[in-house]
Amino acid sequence: MKRYKVGIIGYGWVATAHIQAINATSNAQVTAIYSSRSLDDAEESKRWKTPIKTYTDLNAMLSDKDLDIVSICSYPYQHKDHSIAAAAAGKHLIIEKPLALSKKDCEDIKAAVEKANVKTCFCFECRYSSQFLATKALVDEGLLGELHYGEIDYYHGIGPWYSPYRWNIRKDAGGSSLLTAGCHAMDALLLLMGTDVTEVTSYQAKSKSRVFEPYEYATTSVTILKFASGRVGKCASIIDCLQPYYFHTHLCGSEGSLLDNRFHSMKLQTNRNAWSTLATKMLDSGDVSDHPYQRQFQTFFDSMEKDVQMPLTSLSDALITHKIIFAADASAHSGKPVQL
After folding, report:
1. Which of 5, 123, 270, 283 reaches 20 to 30 Å from 251, CA-CA?
2. What confidence tens digit (pLDDT) does each residue in 174-225 have?
3. Which one, of 110, 106, 150, 128, lies nearest residue 298 by Cα?
4. Distance between CA 152 and CA 169 in Å, rounded?
5. Is residue 315 a part of any domain in this protein?
6. Do the beta carbons of residue 94 and residue 293 sit within 8 Å?
7. pTM to 2 decimals?
8. Number of domains making up the chain
C-alpha cells in the first residue's frame, strides 16, 4: 500500500484539524506546510510527532516531487489561485469549503483540475458524519417512503469568540452566510432530497445585536428550493444567532418522517405517537476538531489507491451545491426567484 505524502497550504485553525485527521489515516502523512508566517521545522515536527518541512515559498513546496497531495486550508479568496497552482504542479487536491467565492472562480478550478487530471476531495465532510450516513441510509432504504419535503438548517453564531471571526466578517473573505457556513446545510439537503433543483428563492436578514454589527453582509439567509420531482425544500443559514450550535434536520415522506435523530416509519410499524431514536452521534459543534475529516480523508486515500472517483464529496458534487448557493445569493440580492 502506498503511503501518500501531503502538503498543507495555509496554517490556520482548520489546517490543524486536517493535519490531525490525515495523520490518523492508515495511508497518508503530512510532510510539508506552507504558510505566510515563518515556521520552525523542528518545532512543527515535534508538535506533530513526524518530520515536517515548512515553507514560505509556495512554488518551492509544490516543486517537491515526493509530495502527492495538497490540502488547501487558506482563506476562501485564495482557494482559486492555490488550487490552480497545486493542480498545475500535478498534486491531487483536498479543498476546504467554500470552493471559491464566485461561480467563475469555481469554474476555473474545475478547468485546472480537468487539465491536470488530478483527483479531488472537497470538504463537505458532514456527508461523512454518523448523523448523515445514518439518515441517508434510512432514506435510501425507503423507510420514509418518497420524500416530498425537507428542511435542513444551520444555526451557529459566529461571533468574536470564534477564531475565523476576524476575517469572516469581510464580504471579500466570508462571502455570504451560505458560503461561509450554511453551505454544509444546503449540501446535506441536496444529498437527501436530490439535485434536480429548478427554482431558488432566497431572503436575507441581519441581527441587530452589536456582536454581529461588523459583518459586511447579511448573516441570516433562508432559501426555498423547488425540485423537478415536485419536492420542496428549505435551508436556513443563521450565523448571527445567540444559542448553542444546532444542525436542524426535518424530512417528511410518504411512509414517515425524520426529525434530527428521531424518526417514525410506517414500513417498520413504529409507534406513530412517539418518536423512535437513531443511535448515532449528532453534529453538535462548530469546532473543526469535531468534524468527521478522518473518515472522509481515509475514503479519499483509499479511492486514490483504487484509482476511482471520490464518493460523496468529489469536485463535481461540490460544484452542484455551489451553483445552487450562488443562485440563492443572487435571488436574495435581486428579490426575485432564480431559475435553474
Report:
1. 123
2. 999 999 999 999 999 999 999 999 999 999 999 999 999 999 999 999 999 9
3. 128
4. 24
5. no
6. no
7. 0.96
8. 2
